[in-house]
Amino acid sequence: MTSLSELNDDIVRSMSIGAVFSDFGGKINSIDFHRTADLLVTASDDDSVRLYDITSAKLLKTTYHKKHGADRICFTHHQSSVICSSRHNLDSDGEILRYLSMYDNRCLRYFKGHKERVVSLCMSPVNDSFMSGSLDHSIRIWDVRVNACQGILHLRGRPTVAYDQQGLVFAVAMEGGAIKLFDSRSYDKGPFDTFLVGGDTAEVSDIKFSNDGKSMLLTTTNNSIYILDAYAGEKKCGFNVDPSPNTTIEAMFTPDGQYVVSGSGDGNLHAWRIDTTDKVASWDSYIGVASCLKWAPRRVMFVAASSVLTFWIPNNGKTTTETGALHPEMGGQPEQITLK
């Protein structure tokens, strides 16, 4: 695959579908790449958790979780272990977060405490801590090694959380466009800084830090995208995409921090260059409105998903067949390549 050091406007424009998996029985709720291994995990409405090798576009493992379902998901540091939140039976037993082994399909630990659905989930990049934000208006901090909650933050509105890439800081978005920054080693002392994103009353649905830690990307529930200076909180630029009444779209930085890519209510994917705010590319997603969108940490590749999962890679003059056949550079064969 093309190396990240070569990323430029032409390569971004050349991105096209390399493989398609359309055998999901419902909407894909969440996707995550492993930080160091070439692995992708998905959680979907059909109660499945699926593990993929992204270099060969191969489905490695599928596990089903009929009792609790599969909603938000993220890798731990282990290649075959994930944290997954529940969709079903949220009130009956409170087992709303589970530490799962994909290797032998075992639940290694339950985490109880949240009273409503988890809408934000992220793993620390440096240790065994992870955070969850719930519609019960709380953020909980956990350690995968113990059942007990390690810390709790109560706040207004829909909570959204994210660690920076060094694991030193985490950001919390709350009602009214307030972004609070915490030192992850002493969060009990309260936020060390608060930013206000003025002019937009919509709730923040997602936060991401750029790899260099200098910028934050905010996506709101009305499909506005903002890039903030992570140190001063100033708004660098903003982008808007078409509304998607029944789907929350996702946006992302490329790993080099030069570009932002986003889904849209018009069923397209859009890419902008941050330093000039110019739109670099627009692609038909071929899957309707993409609710999940993430760029691989170490590859020139991203994944877009609705009820269909698509792998996007540079075309380099080659073409992908109309049936979604695998791009020659990826090698291997996907288990399902029907594109509708």
Automatic annotation (TrEMBL):
Intracellular or extracellular location(s): Nucleus
GO cellular component, one term: nucleus
PROSITE patterns: WD_REPEATS_2 (PS50082), WD_REPEATS_REGION (PS50294)
Any Pfam family the entry gives: WD40
Membrane-spanning ranges: none
This protein's UniProt keywords: Nucleus, Repeat, WD repeat
WD repeat coordinates: 21-62, 111-145, 253-282
InterPro entries (alphabetical): Swd2/WDR82, WD40/YVTN_repeat-like_dom_sf, WD40_PAC1, WD40_repeat_dom_sf, WD40_rpt
Superkingdom per UniProt: Eukaryota
Family stated for the protein in its record: Belongs to the WD repeat SWD2 family.
Descriptive protein name: Transducin/WD40 repeat-like superfamily protein
Lineage: Eukaryota, Viridiplantae, Streptophyta, Embryophyta, Tracheophyta
